Amino acid sequence: MTEGTLEIDRISKRYGAKVALDGVSFDVRAGELFGFVGSNGAGKTTTMRIALGVLAADGGEVRFGGRKITHETRTHIGYMPEERGLYPKMKVLDQLVYLAELHGLSANEAHRNAENWIGRLGLAERRKDEVQKLSLGNQQRVQLAAALVHDPAVLVLDEPFSGLDPLAVDVMSGVLREKAAAGVPVVFSSHQLDLVERLCDRVGIIRSGRMVAVGTVAELTAGGGSKLVVTAPGAQPGWAAGLPGVRVLEEGATTVLGLDPSADDQAVLAAALATGPVTEFSRRRRSLTELFRDAVSDKGER
Ligand SMILES: Nc1ncnc2c1ncn2[C@@H]1O[C@H](COP(=O)(O)OP(=O)(O)OP(=O)(O)O)[C@@H](O)[C@H]1O
To answer: Which option is the CATH number for 6-220: 3.40.50.300, 2.40.170.20, 3.40.50.150, 3.40.50.970?
Structure first.
């Protein structure tokens, strides 16, 4: 299957009277790692299940490479469900081989791929163990291997990082980046916003079944002014009060100032220098976490 963009186009879904998705659209481009974030119950799992085709949308369409996803193209998607879907009593290697064969690989290819991912994901010593006897983190590694074992053209992962230790997070991050670099559109949901900010090329924020922001982290955090961190050891409290477009957010050994887009940072530097030496003067843009709080504030989801 060739490279392409995964397009989620105006999908909607109701559960009875509850509107879970209301015209959700976003693209995950070939070679892109896309972070899908939103509060509990915002609609992430519903969107991903529809993208995979295990759940039917009431409206809208999902396309890959310009074509509507069909039963055949669906087998080219690697999916990691939130409710981990492994066979508890099956051994790790047997399970991966079985899943690869189910996706149409020959016995030889299935074995080769299964052993490859077992090695890559640090599961070599567990390959003959039943899945149910593994720790949760290792079960998750097997689940990732299960999503990858058939060489998918698209990866859709529901909270792949939850419950992983820092080393496993590094392994997972590396594998996802590598797949993206190989031209696979990769979308994953997560509540770990620092990780999403660090890892993803683009991010989409969903709130109550609607996309409220889509873009690179730099694009999304560019608006709304920025912060300046100033350390001027000789400064007296109130040194920055009254500077145009400047709000004092924190004052102490280090002062944190909120700057409106119109504020003149050089005037702030001059005011700081007027108090004596300045040992730190740096801009800090909004973090994804701050942006997220603003984007989803004032309403719970459930
Ligand atoms: N099978 C179902 N029947 C009825 N309502 C459902 C069903 N599945 C999900 N919902 C509702 O649809 C909304 C979206 O749920 P969804 O699981 O997609 O959210 P989510 O963003 O994945 O949440 P979380 O971060 O908690 O996993 C929620 O209000 C949820 O209660």
So the answer is: 3.40.50.300
DSSP notation for 228-277: EEEE-TTPPTTTTTT-TTEEEEE-SSEEEEEE-TT--HHHHHHHHHTTS-
pTM of the model: 0.84
Q: Which structure tokens are listed for 301?
A: 């989801």
Q: Which atom of ligand 1 is nearest to the CA of 48?
A: 18
Can you tell me the ipTM of this complex? 0.96
Instruction: Tell me how far the alpha carbon of residue 181 lies from the centroid of ligand 1, in angstroms.
Output: 31
Q: Are 1 and 69 in contact (CB under 8 A)?
A: no
**Cα-to-centroid distance, 77 and ligand 1 (Å):** 22
Q: Model confidence over 179-229: pLDDT tens digits?
A: 999 999 999 999 999 999 999 999 999 999 999 999 998 888 876 668 899
Is the backbone of residue 151 left (phi > 0), alpha (psi -120 to 50) or beta? Answer: left
Distance 273 CA to ligand 1 centre (A): 54
Helix (H) or strand (E) holding 92: helix 92-102
